[in-house]
Amino acid sequence: MPSIAGCGAHADQPVSPAPQALTPPMGWNSWNSGIQLSERTVEDTIDAMVRSGMRDAGYRYVDLDAGWAAASRDAAGNLRADPARFPAGISAVARYAHDHGMLLGLYASPSYELCGLGAPNASEGHESGDAATFARWGVDYLKYDWCSTDSDLAHEVRDFTAMRDALRATGRPIFYSINPNTSGDPGAGSDYDWSSVADMSRNTVDLVPLWHNQFGADQPVLGVWEQITAAAPLAGRSRPGYFNDPDMLVAGIPWPAFMTSHPGMIETLAGQSGPSMTDAEQRSHVSLWAMMSAPLLAGNDIRSMSQQTREILTNPDIIAVDQDRLVRQARPLAQDPRVMVKPLVDGAVAVAMVNPGQQPASIATTASAVGLPATGCYGVRDLWSHTASTTTGDLPAGQVAPHATVVLRVEPRC
Length: 414
What we know:
Helices cover 26% and strands 20% of the residues. The protein is an alpha/beta fold. The protein folds into two domains: 26-322, Aldolase class I (TIM Barrel); 333-411, Golgi alpha-mannosidase II (Immunoglobulin-like), CATH 2.60.40. Strand 11 (331-333) and strand 12 form a beta hairpin. The two termini are 27 Å apart.
């Protein structure tokens, strides 16, 4: 479960973000599922997260993405929830989340546009008022998503920093997540170090529920494997209190359902089909996000989640790797980039052996190669089969199926 810390920095001392969470946030975001947001659907999702064991596994945030707000501000210029779908307002939903041991997140945009709704609801010039509104409603998390394509980096830094300072000034610890990549500059998330501005920042353009973006580089989306490649150069930024964000999880979301519920994406990928992710690909997806110390924000419809998806998302051994307090992002081995290594707080390492190819592959490494000290015996735990073994140094994964991943926890003792 994410480790929460208090907010210690004053608004007029914006040196670095006050860490709300010392380990990556876990929860659910509404966007990928395509759920039509309302009091009923959000409360039903909260109930499903409790009932399914998601909450108790550490998934505590319930984040309402685009679609919760009314089409315009009120007469005083304040943000407001859509009155037809949230008649009791956001504060009532926040109370419901808190009463069930969960935390509530909202979505907003800087600059002049709010994705899908236009200028009246964007927060540029409204940062202090909007932050005060979020705090008054009891919001715990803000996803701040740039939606204006006529921007430059200096404009983004200014606006993202303004909301950071406004959130701090409220005195309420609100986790601050930003996405600078929908600005017309798809490299904004990686080209600038946002760790002095936000608690987490998106690395790239949007992730879709495919292993590989088969539609070509001209399409502004990534598959799971492309995201792994894009995230690798940013490993040095990951640390307690700041997290690289490779986007929300897409496990449990069939490709046809995703396309149907995202008309804007259909315009981009009109008429193009793709294979839904296999079970092996979904396990790899969650495994690799955990290896990257990434936020685990489920995007499927929790209310109708299959048992298999639930087991993938709530694997306690994989979650423990993600939530390790060192918050180190795994790095690929130079001699075999299919092997990724993540140091853990107790001196052990997590080792992921991933086969990105189309044919089964034999993958192996050694305790020495993954950075462990020399000793006569190493303890090994397979984090998907939940079996334990020992070795004198060799770490064979055997034959790894296409797009599958073997994840081991290896410690220098037996």
